[in-house]
Amino acid sequence: MPRVQRLTLKQVQMLTLEQINKMTDSERARALTTVQDVLAKRQKRAAEKGIELPGLRNYTPTSTRGLGKDELKQQLKFAIQASKNRTSSITGVQQFQKETWESIKSKIEPEDIDEEEIENPFEDPEFTKDFWSIYDKIKDKTQGFGTVGSWTSDTLKTYIYQQKMKDKSNLSIVRSGRKIAREMYKEEQRRRAEIEEEMEPDYNDRNSDLIEIDGDEDLFDL
Predict the structure, then answer these.
(1) How far is CA 105 from CA 93, 125, 139, in A?
(2) pLDDT tens for residues 161-197?
(3) What is the pLDDT of residue 92?
(4) Could you tell me which residues come within 8 angstroms of residue 97 by beta carbon, excluding any fewer than 6 positions away?
(5) What is the pLDDT of residue 148?
(6) Torsion angle, CA of 186/187/190/194, rounded to 10 degrees?
(7) Angle CA(121)–CA(125)–CA(127) in degrees, nearest 5?
(8) Do the beta carbons of residue 73 and residue 22 sit within 8 Å?
(9) What pLDDT is recorded for position 201?
């Protein structure tokens, strides 16, 4: 039996849905193995450096043995998506951390940062782990996250950093963050209610341009 050609990761990532559907089970299995081998190496290297790869947090590799056509297609799609996640590699994580830090710095008053002394705190694995744990706990309990008047991602990140610089505990930051989020959400709801009320016509206003029609009168004289 001829050996099925093994694709590179880049080749697998470029596969279209139509191409995956046309592949044989052996081809799908080898493509899946290729991706999973790469992801396993990424995780091993990251672990050695004490770096977490958030892009692979929810991905679990699986054995190709015994998988049917539909299962192979589904697992291959999952693996390809995981491999494309920005933070599924050390390089991707480092770039994301750099951009996150630059974004936070741009929102902090210049006098609060000494450019010559301060370093990117996200280079510290412990700080990074705490930071994103706090971020997720606040975001997951925030109504209207990202909508007008509520937390935006950049605003929340800046808030968390400022609180950590004040040596606030993780629990304290989560509680205060959730409280602020609730207050922001309620304020936005109140503001919207006021706008809607202002837009409601006042039928008791004699100077109103509204035309009142008697229910017993014909609208048109035909």
Answers:
(1) 18, 19, 21
(2) 999 989 999 999 999 999 998 888 888 888 878 887 7
(3) 95
(4) 120, 122, 123, 128
(5) 73
(6) -170
(7) 50
(8) no
(9) 66
Is residue 28 within 8 Å of 6, Cβ to Cβ?
no
- List of residues 6+ apart from 118 with CB closer than 8 A: none
What span, in angstroms and rounded, lies between the C-alpha atoms of 172 and 12?
45
Question: Which amino acid is residue 127, in one-letter code?
Answer: F
Q: What is the DSSP string of the chain?
A: -PPPPPPPHHHHHT--HHHHHHS-HHHHHHHHHHHHHHHHHHHHHHHHTT---GGGTT------TT--HHHHHHHHHHHHHHHHSGGGSHHHHHHHHHHHHHHHHHTS-GGG--TTT---GGGSHHHHHHHHHHHHHHHHT-TTTTSTTS--HHHHHHHHHHHHHTT--HHHHHHHHHHHHHHHHHHHHHHHHHHHHHHS--TT-TT--PPP--TTS-SS--
Token readout for 196 is 């809607």
- Cα angle 192-195-201, degrees, rounded to a multiple of 5: 140
**Distance from chain centroid for Cα 111:** 31
Which residues of the chain fall short of a pLDDT of 70?
1-5, 110-118, 200-222
Asked if residue 5 lies in contact with residue 26, where contact means CB atoms within 8 angstroms, the answer is: no
Question: Tell me, what's the pLDDT at 191?
Answer: 83
The model's pTM is 0.72
